[in-house]
Amino acid sequence: MHIKWDIQGLFIYLAMIGYLSAFVGVLVNRKVAAGRLCFGFAFAAALTAYIVRWVISTHLPMQNLFEVFLLMMVMVGPISWLTRNMQQDDSWVMAAGDAIIGILVCFPAGFVFSAAPRPLPPPLQSVLFGPHVASYMTAYLLMARACIPAVAALAGRYNDQRLIDAERHSYGMAAAGFPLLSLGLILGSVWGKLAWGDWWAWDPKELWSLACWLMYMFYFHWRIVHPKEYIRTRLWLVLVGMAFIVITLLWVNLSNLFAGRHSYAT
Length: 266
Hints:
- By secondary structure, the chain is an all-alpha fold.
- The protein is 76% helix and 0% strand.
- It has helices at residues 7-29, 33-57, 65-87, 92-112, 129-155, 160-196, 204-225, 231-254.
- The longest helix has 37 residues, at 160-196.
């Protein structure tokens, strides 16, 4: 366990407290307004922690898993606000789910991964570094949001219409995240050509990123082929897609079985 005792650690834990308070407030009152102030506080704390990290590291903080989770801590609030307004969904279920996502991305940054600064390796000193990582992290958070109505629908006693509505919201999030998932894959290929001389190197991270993309392609295809059937199957496919993302983000980076060119992400 890596507890952070410095100033960036303080703001990481304040962000975690903010997301936790938002979850409790929404869950108790069943109103979105109860968590808005806490969400704002969590975003401000996470943004401060990210800026502090940027100053400490002297480069864009996206190099390793600590910095990646720090980035997602900052992005949770704006993505939640933007997508809720676009979908006009102010339900307390979505607000509580957003708070849970915030807590989940805070925990690895606060307790799991080391915050020791490292020099940026030559392959990462590229103009594609920021766009490649940011597009993937944004896509991952959108796919995580797609899981909120899916879990609520599968766990709750929803009638047919509510099940369809939940799947539609879930699809909206996945559809918003998929272009960014595709962009991350394309930018990674171009970056690989520039850095290593290959468009595709069969690296474990590359393979699992492709597996994620294919999984969501299968979900969209299934939805087109069965427009009015298998609603629960669609929801399960969204959850399976998220499981693929977790494997790509964590297991591939941390397991010795998948050592490859992306090993610096640990």
